[in-house]
Design goal:
This protein is mainly alpha-helical. The chain contains 19 helices and three strands. The C terminus is likely disordered.
Length: 366
Amino acid sequence: MGAADAPARIISWLQSSTSARLLAELAAAGKHLTHDLLDTLPAGHDECYVRALLVHTAVFEPREEGLERIPPWLERILVDRPAAHARLVYPYTHWVLLRQARHRASKGLTTPSSWGRIRGRVTLILSFLDWLDEQQLTLATVTQDNLDHWLTSGPRRRHDIGSFLTWAHQRGLANEHHIRPSPEAPDTLILTEDQRWQELSRCLNDNSLPLRVRVGRTLTLLYGMPASIVRLLTTSDIRRDTDGVYLNLGRQPLFVPPRPAALVTELADHARQTPVSPSARAWLFPGTVPGQPLSTAGYSLLMRRHGFHTIPARSAALIALAGRLPSPVLAELLNIHIHTARKWASYSQPDWAAYLAERAAGEDRL
């Protein structure tokens, strides 16, 4: 402890933290510390923090914690739900959502936000079942008009409820329904190009801003990177070559111009100097839980505290990039889906097909 960077903080944590008290109780019990032992404890901050601490210090093997927490969470929220709801949601979650999630996790295709999306889908399905009860309807009696009314009465995630209804129909529990995609449009609040460059200039020159805030804002303003990607960057994602600095986001390294690169490498050097266990990742944006990055919500809060809103800046950057790069190139460079790249291109590039059709119609009228 005497060799620690801040021994006073460690002493204070040992004396006052409920997480430290839980760790002491586990040690005093004399039981072998395992993930299974911690799984028997009530879920909460202390249990989560102690588990992350033991993984970070290599006492526990890492596991896909977000995935492992879904089944007990599902058990808790279904306890007070109508039995009919539980009989639908429990098998759908286990046989469809968790099965898909485990398959993606085995291929390394999940992120921490993946587990939040599963919870969101379950919550949405339960709210839909509540609405059916209020309308004195069931999955077997709900009509297309009923469904359209529910979908248009507020913001709904159509794909999420559509997958559930398809699953129910395949098992003879519901009629076949069609979920029409909702029209998409860019965010109504988008930075102008001048505002975007002014914001970028401040990131590069304002030393009063914390370094990690400057780096996060710069990456969003330059490349349209969302909080969910920026917060997961590690030192291994930064590559220095003789011709400059690159970010490893997808198959193709992304070149970072010299001045932003200086900020990125400074933050990476700082992260490398922070002690971590041999198996731990050196996050550029570490969170408060040992060995974990900032959560998406925590990252967004950090940015808002310094007057930066990610979505308008990201939209402006993607529209600007889509106006200069073909969609396949943009998708490969930023590691986004080709459909996403095409969507942003539709906001920034003229629709030549529509123009030519209109011109031909005009010539016919002459």
